[in-house]
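Our collaborator T.R. sent over the components below with a one-line note: 'Predict the complex.' Nothing else. No constraints on interfaces, no templates requested, no preferences about which chain binds where. So this is a plain run: every listed entity goes in together, and whatever single assembly comes back becomes the starting point for the next discussion.
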Amino acid sequence: MTEVNLLFEPGKQMVVITHIFDAPRELVWKIYTDPELFPRWWGPEIFKTTIDKMEVKSGGSWRVVQHDPEGNEFAFHGVYHEVKALERVIDTMEWEGMPGHVLLETVTFEDLDGKTKVTNISVFQSVEDRDGMVQTGMEVGVKESNKRFVKLLKELQ
Amino acid sequence: MTEVNLLFEPGKQMVVITHIFDAPRELVWKIYTDPELFPRWWGPEIFKTTIDKMEVKSGGSWRVVQHDPEGNEFAFHGVYHEVKALERVIDTMEWEGMPGHVLLETVTFEDLDGKTKVTNISVFQSVEDRDGMVQTGMEVGVKESNKRFVKLLKELQ
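Returned assembly:
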């Protein structure tokens, strides 16, 4: 079984997402950080995801583009503050449709008796930004990404 | 006259600092982003500040070290998510004494009839992190940096 949980408390400017994957941390880390695998789980399945840049290392930059079936593009980019293999990724993220609105994401990976717990804390520049993101249907998106991630896990296990 | 104002509301995970400088935006921007000038105003006057790296551009990295009179070193580093000349800097910052604790800083520069308003919004990964930073004497530090900044402004005007 795989669990995903989203927490967004009223009046706060963060979202906390936890996943528990029934797989070893090495594999979870690989799927999370490999530019070849990333497009296969990040975002909704009906979007095609392409990697413009994904330098997974401290000080690196990234840019990912989602293409919907109508040909619209949704681009996101940011920088990696820290990448510590198997343990932690801290990065920034901006949707290019709203320039200047940026979030700080802290993702930690923990062993849990053979399973892996992934905790993702996203903090926003304001409560309004956080609420805006939640209202775009973030929960549905996160759950769909989680489902695709698990599918990929099983395929690679 | 120069004004500096700090706002940290209880229970929030951010600090908002505003400065109004009686100087044109070009000069304020230059002092803020020039690696030669930065050590002359950032932090307490009794510390010597050295720049290890300061790549002021989108995707760049920075690392600054403060040396106290006893020879202790306090190092800070981060990445620039965005540098938009004369308008905005968005970057991350981590004090190396507390690894993994990172803040996202958004600094905007606005013309105000010949004066310049600088707004600095720092968001933290938690309320506890924010409160910890405030309790280290952040207010005194910010006010001292502001004073040094103004002194430098006058010298260069």
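Summary for T.R.: The longest helix of chain B spans residues 138-156.
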